[in-house]
Design goal:
With 313 residues, this protein is α/β, with parallel strands linked by helices. The chain is 43% helix and 9% strand. It contains 14 helices and seven strands. The strands form two sheets. The chain has a five-stranded mixed sheet. Strands 1-7 form a two-stranded antiparallel sheet. Helix 2 crosses helix 3 and helix 5 packs across helix 6. The radius of gyration is 19 Å and the shape is globular. It starts with 8 loop residues before the first helix and ends in a 23-residue tail after the last helix.
Length: 313
């Protein structure tokens, strides 16, 4: 008997057509990936069925690609200590402050809508003297993992990020940390199993619009074409349905405060997971003894040469 949630018909149609999902074979595929994970001495990882299923969907049910992405997920986390560190807990006061400020808003959708999920990032809504850009990314990464467990729209149809630049100052722009943005974008592209469908910068000050277009250079090649930049306040209605948007954005959906409260409650329900995840990761010394060299392995984070190449059995 399957231990994962069944998909609604519209999402099942997408999963079958685009992701090669075969409903009666899903549990067998999960068990095959789990068996491989448990045999890897260098990996300390979550092996819950729903979590593993996200990697299978994210690689169109190619077991070999799922292995590679799963390994990369934990390997690259270890290479971004600014984000993946001991503050990445559901009870961390800084994490809770960022949620309560509404810096990140996961937009509720109709239960039968098969489209990609949407997150609004209010890039100008935090105090740069109190929080760093990496702190915002840390909270976003936590909800990215929660989506892998809970949001079939994210694992099947992907996700869209709306970067609202209202109120952005020079201090916010300086705090963007392009190198970190580039590293985390590579992680999102190579290691996260959910599919990035678009990054939309809205309410960009007209004087800075050309400069923001240059941010494309910090993103992986295939994501660059999914980035849009505009100063038009009404552009958000072309990205997100009005009935989903918070009232503060001219929509008819829940208020930003209500969304933030829902997100905080959801994060709280994952307290044990994020506590456990503090011990997840890779031991590179054990990787060398526990795997065989693979001919076509790839390095991550460009040509910097400071990150070990992955070898997947």
């Amino acid at each position: 008997m399957s231990s994962v949630r069944p998909l609604k018909p519209a999402l099942m149609a997408i999963a079958t057509r685009e992701l090669n999902e075969v409903p009666h074979r899903v549990q067998q595929d999960i068990e095959a990936l789990k068996e491989w994970v448990l045999k890897q001495p260098h990996l300390r990882a979550c092996t819950e069925d729903q979590f593993l299923l996200a990697f299978l969907r994210g690689t169109k049910f190619s077991l070999e690609r799922a292995k590679e992405k799963f390994d990369r997920f934990y390997t690259l986390q270890g290479s971004i200590p600014e984000v993946f560190n001991k503050r990445r807990l559901a009870t961390d006061p800084q994490v809770l402050d960022i949620i309560r400020m509404g810096v990140l808003l996961q937009i509720p959708m109709d239960v039968d809508d098969p489209g990609p999920c949407v997150t609004i990032i209010r890039a100008g809504s935090y105090d740069t003297s109190k929080y760093k850009f990496q702190d915002i990314i840390r909270v976003g990464s936590m909800f990215g993992e929660i989506m892998m467990f809970e949001d079939e729209n994210a694992t099947v149809s992907g996700y869209v990020e709306v970067m609202d630049m209202t109120g952005v100052t020079g201090a916010h722009l300086f705090a963007l940390q392009p190198q970190l943005l580039s590293k985390f974008s590579t992680y999102a592209d190579e290691a996260m199993p959910t599919r990035q469908k678009g990054i939309h910068f809205i309410n960009v000050p007209a004087a800075f619009e050309a400069g923001f277009n240059s941010l494309r250079s910090f993103f992986p090649a295939k994501i660059k074409n999914r980035i849009s930049v505009t100063s038009d306040p009404s552009a958000i209605f072309e990205i997100v349905r009005r009935e989903y948007l918070p009232k503060e954005y001219g929509g008819t959906g829940p208020s930003m405060q209500d969304i933030s409260r829902t997100m905080e409650a959801k994060l709280s329900s994952y307290e044990t997971y994020f506590q456990d995840s503090q011990s997840f990761g890779v031991d590179e010394k054990l990787r060398e003894f526990g795997t065989h060299e693979r001919k076509n392995h790839r390095s991550s984070f460009g040509a910097a040469g400071s990150f070990r190449k992955l070898q997947i059995d």
